[in-house]
Design goal:
This protein is an alpha+beta fold. The protein is about 55% helix and about 10% strand. A hairpin with a 4-residue loop joins strand 1 and strand 2 (about 210).
Length: about 400
């Protein structure tokens, strides 16, 4: 047994990269290179960490597949921190299979947790839950166990399930205390603060107030027709009408919902939907067309009836109507929500997470940069974007969720 390698590995597990480097800094054998790479990653020098890990993997060679797989898992974790989400999960899956075959259950479980964390970031919650369900939490290192519980909490928060989220955050806090790694405790504290912050704004004709996630959950379980301006859909019970690709219809039904049970004048609808300062006959004709499209889209949950001065929303079964909006409304809020985690994202990773084109994200970033809300560093493929300041609103209802269902 190499005592220096063992000591360095224990120091890294305890979150002390400097102690690990003191032990192996002058060595260039493959195990030492790998440990130096992990230490540099913990210190934040991710470029150097990647270089050391790749060098270690080459030096291990094909005769040591398990060691090469561990290097691949460590590099995948760095890619995740760098928000290099375009990297294929295939390499991580292959490394996990090699580790399981070699009996390294701890690192295999860690690879599974990383895959689930990747899937959570891009909103593929069902897949993340399936992967995490196959991970043996009992063999995870303490630091990885904290991350696993944060993934569980993140899935529950995006699904607006407050009790499972609160329970997972409690487990994460206890695991962080046992690990005694300050960075992990800080990460958990940030997650708890985000969970406890107001998650949305309830807008009705008579009220406009902030809601916490638990209140949002109760609202979604009530017999209320909800126009969800956070996730761009209309919800009544278990019936959901997605309008993410139909912004005009979303603007129209939001205006109708905010005025319910009263009607909305045509002039106000023209301003909300088309931003028309001076409406002419062409605008009125377009409004009639869009109202017809809205009627067809929301037929399962409500109808729109013409009145003498405009239109009124008539829900089928709901007792009330409300709008669920972000606490602070701003342009490109979804992009800011992702950047709100404090990490540096590439435009391609943002596009992947939001399921839009890279050019759409690039235009959004340019507008946000013009308003000094985001800033970039690096050039070309190495360009990364960060929020200039932490957004003044929580992100849970703005983060991507693939395949929202009731």
């Amino acid at each position: 047994m190499d005592l220096a390698i063992t000591a360095a590995a224990r120091a890294l597990s305890a979150g002390d990269p400097l102690a690990a480097l003191k032990t192996v800094a002058l060595r260039d054998d493959p195990p030492a290179l790998a440990l130096r790479g992990i230490a540099m990653a913990q210190l934040g020098d991710l470029a150097r960490a990647r270089e050391l890990l790749r060098n270690a993997a080459r030096r291990f060679g094909p005769k040591e597949p398990a060691a090469r797989a561990r290097c691949a898992v460590a590099e995948a974790e760095i890619a995740l921190v760098c928000r290099d989400l375009g990297r294929s999960l295939q390499t991580l899956n292959e490394a996990r299979a090699v580790l399981e075959a070699s009996g390294d259950r701890s690192n295999a479980a860690h690879a599974g947790y990383l895959e689930a964390r990747h899937l959570l970031l891009i909103g593929r919650l069902d897949e993340a839950e399936g992967v995490l369900g196959g991970v043996d939490a009992g063999v995870l290192p303490r630091a990885s166990l904290v991350g696993r519980e944060l993934v569980v909490a993140g899935m529950a928060i995006r699904r607006i399930k407050t009790e499972p989220a609160r329970t997972a955050l409690g487990r994460a806090r206890r695991a962080a205390e046992e690990a005694r790694i300050p960075a992990l405790a800080t990460e958990v504290d940030q997650a708890v603060r985000a969970f406890e912050a107001p998650a949305a704004r309830l807008v009705t004709r008579d009220a406009d107030r902030l809601l916490h996630l638990e209140e949002v959950e109760r609202l979604l379980a009530s017999k209320t027709l909800i126009v969800d301006a956070c996730r761009n859909l209309v919800r009544s019970g278990t019936t959901i009408v997605p309008l993410a690709t139909r912004p005009v219809l979303l603007a129209l039904i939001r205006a109708l919902a905010e005025a319910w049970p009263e009607d909305v004048p045509r002039e106000r609808l023209l301003k909300r939907a088309f931003r028309a300062r001076h409406a002419d006959e062409s605008h009125r004709a377009r409004l009639r067309v869009e109202i017809g499209r809205l009627r067809e889209a929301i037929k399962p949950v409500a109808e729109v009836s013409a009145t003498r001065r405009g239109f009124v929303l008539l829900p089928h079964a709901a007792r009330d109507v409300a709008v669920l909006a972000p606490p602070v409304e701003t342009d490109h809020a979804e992009v800011l929500a992702l950047l709100g985690d404090g990490e540096a994202w590439s435009s391609s990773a943002l596009a992947l997470a939001l399921s839009v084109s890279p050019r759409t994200v690039q235009r959004a970033l340019e507008e946000l940069a013009h308003d000094s809300k985001v800033e970039a560093f690096g050039r070309g493929r190495a360009c990364r974007w960060i929020a200039s300041t932490v957004p003044g609103f929580p992100t849970s209802l703005l983060l991507p969720v693939a395949g929202i269902s009731g």
